[in-house]
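Lab notebook: predicted structure, single chain.

Context: the supervisor wants predicted structures on file for every construct in the current expression panel, including those that have not yet been purified. This is the next one on the list. No modifications to the sequence; it matches the entry in the shared construct table.
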Amino acid sequence: MLRAGAHHFAADGIDAARTRDIIATAGQANDSAITYHFGSRAGLLEAILRAGVTRMEPARTTP
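Prediction complete. Output recorded below exactly as produced.
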């Protein structure tokens, strides 16, 4: 769901990205999947941003 969310937030814009599109792209059948896993749409966005920071951290700390 993180990849699907990142795709739609980047392609459609944070405000325009639809949760139904994110859920469908992620292959989820339940419309409540974002709320269940992340608490809210904002929680999904926060998880995406945290994952990105975590991936960049090694490069940031390498001399």
